[in-house]
Design a protein that fits this description.
The chain is of the alpha+beta class. The protein has two domains: 271 residues, Transferase(Phosphotransferase) domain 1 (Transferase(Phosphotransferase), domain 1, Orthogonal Bundle), CATH 1.10.510; 171 residues, no CATH class. The chain has eleven helices and 18 strands. Helix 3 packs antiparallel against helix 4 and helix 4 packs antiparallel against helix 7. The longest helix is centred in the middle third of the chain and has 61 residues. The relative contact order is 0.06.
Length: 497
């Protein structure tokens, strides 16, 4: 590692470390000076593993693109050392910006900026990122990566995503950002697009305008980006017109297709905002503000619907995993072991584990055991009537429960003789996977039946809607709920085959 006053040679120039500037996102930063008294910034970078040729080539390609960028609002890179040559410390040699970062600037700002002040910064950042995006996607835009040099805002750290090792970032990084600025689609995919940079820049514009992050400081950044909808900027800073606020809101759209196609379109929209100064400006502002509120409400509703859908999908996947892991795995292990040992007829299995109706069956000659599982939906609630606060009877429904815990799924294990048991998955206090129970059902003798059912037997799904509430009570059926184990399933198969 370099220290102040250290000397080194690089690309036919001699340098001396002059000053420690700080600790950046990937490593330490120093000011350096060459023999001609020209000053630069030197940023230490993590060790680069060159053993993987493809990965190393990718890093070099990224760096070569970054070197091509030459714009007043983008930090100029002057050299890249991979640490494999005479200078063993990997580093970047780049333009020195003597002033603070945008993050420091915003922290020291005590009053909200005017619209003109905000736009002055916006245009500089647009110019800089436009030049960068002509060569590559930044992937990690944030106020800490925007430097200020004598009033000029300069975007830095572009082209460094592939240089950074996983250990230098959160596990969510993977080449596309820091959690407060990661676009919704980036949490699901590692494909990098200019629209991801637009989303991050939208958050930066929001912070410049309001001196706060659009989502505050949420406990879960992924959920915030996927489901939360920020207040319009004009609601938090009266200096910002509804039109400018609208532009920022469009940059923050959840869907990439709803953002701008390119940076010129962003620039044009901001320029149009400044023309709203005629006699009808107040009327226009009112219409735009009302439109923003409607858009905000619609996006909140859409985000809520998406969140609900994704929660259902997550719940469904957890149930299917639990069914495969806790119920089917012991059966498949038994079948595999049986078929390995048996020289006679083999056990065959057939499964359908897609959709909300899961099934599995084992066949041995003309004998069989089948399992089915039904994922509980709202339609499985038991219709009921209750009195409201005014004493009126209203229609309602009762969600199926077992031992006062919501049921997630239910089904049955049945054989060719009509014998069987019900299986029930209920919510757990410990984890999201739930707890399995088996219902051992038989006739109780309290009811008169023309044709007694075999013992034990399984209720159909339609019967379970009513009968699940009668576990452990005096009834025409005797229903006993006990924890389901793999041994219990295997014993039932053994007795059936």
């Amino acid at each position: 590692m370099f220290r102040v006053n250290d000397k080194f040679s690089f690309e036919n120039n001699d340098y001396v470390i002059k000053e420690f500037l700080g600790n950046g996102g990937m490593g330490y930063v120093f000011s350096v000076e060459n023999q001609n008294s020209n000053q630069f910034a030197l940023k230490m970078i993590p060790y680069i593993n060159a053993s993987n040729d493809d990965e190393y080539r990718s890093i070099i390609n990224e760096w070569e693109k970054a070197q091509l960028i030459n714009h007043v609002n983008a930090i100029k890179y002057h050299g890249f050392n991979d640490g494999l040559t005479s200078v063993k410390n990997p580093f970047l040699l780049m333009e020195l910006a003597r002033d603070k970062t945008l993050a420091e600037f915003l922290r020291n700002q005590n009053t909200l900026l005017s619209e003109d002040e905000c736009l002055g910064i916006f245009y500089q950042l647009i110019d800089g990122i436009e030049a960068i995006n002509a060569e590559l996607v930044h992937r990690d835009l944030k106020p800490e990566n925007i430097l200020i040099d004598r009033g000029v805002f300069k975007i830095s750290d572009f082209g460094l995503a592939k240089i950074a090792e996983d250990k230098t970032r959160t596990k969510t990084f993977k080449g596309w950002g820091t959690p407060p600025y990661i676009a919704p689609e980036a949490w699901r995919s590692e494909k990098n697009t200019i629209q991801m940079d637009m989303y991050a820049m939208g958050h930066i514009f929001y912070q410049i305008s309001t001196l706060r992050h659009a989502f505050g400081n949420p406990p879960n950044w992924e959920e915030a980006h996927l489901y939360s909808t920020p207040q319009p900027v004009s609601n938090l800073n009266s200096n910002i017109s509804p039109k400018v606020s609208q532009v920022i809101g469009k940059l923050l759209s959840k869907k990439p297709i709803q953002r701008y196609e390119n940076w010129q379109a962003v620039r044009d929209s901001l320029s149009i905002a400044k023309t709203n100064v005629g006699v009808n400006s107040s009327v226009i502002d009112t219409i735009l503000r009302n439109k923003q509120q409607r858009d905000l409400q619609r996006e909140q509703e859409e985000s809520k619907a998406i969140q609900q859908q994704q929660l259902v999908e997550r719940k469904t996947n957890l149930i299917k995993f639990s069914f495969r892991n806790d119920v089917l795995e012991p059966i498949e292990s038994f079948v595999s072991e049986f078929n390995r040992i048996s020289d006679l007829e083999k056990i065959k299995n057939v499964s359908n584990l897609s959709g909300s109706e899961l099934s599995y069956q084992v066949n041995y000659g003309d004998r069989w055991v089948k399992l089915n599982l039904h994922l509980i939906r709202e339609s499985d609630n038991l219709p009921s009537k209750q009195r409201n606060l005014f004493g009126e009877m209203v229609n309602t429904s009762i969600a199926p429960k077992l031992h006062n815990k919501l049921i997630l799924a239910w089904g049955a294990i049945e054989n060719f003789e009509g014998k069987g048991m019900n299986i029930v998955l209920v919510e757990s206090n410990i984890d999201e996977y739930g707890d399995w129970f088996v219902l051992e059902n038989s006739d109780s003798g309290f009811g008169l039946r023309n044709k007694p059912r075999p013992t034990p037997f399984a209720f159909s799904n339609n019967e379970l809607i009513k009968e699940i509430h009668n576990v452990g009570v005096m009834h025409i059926y005797k229903i006993k709920a006990v924890p389901l184990t793999g041994d219990k399933i295997i014993k039932f198969i053994e007795s059936s085959l």
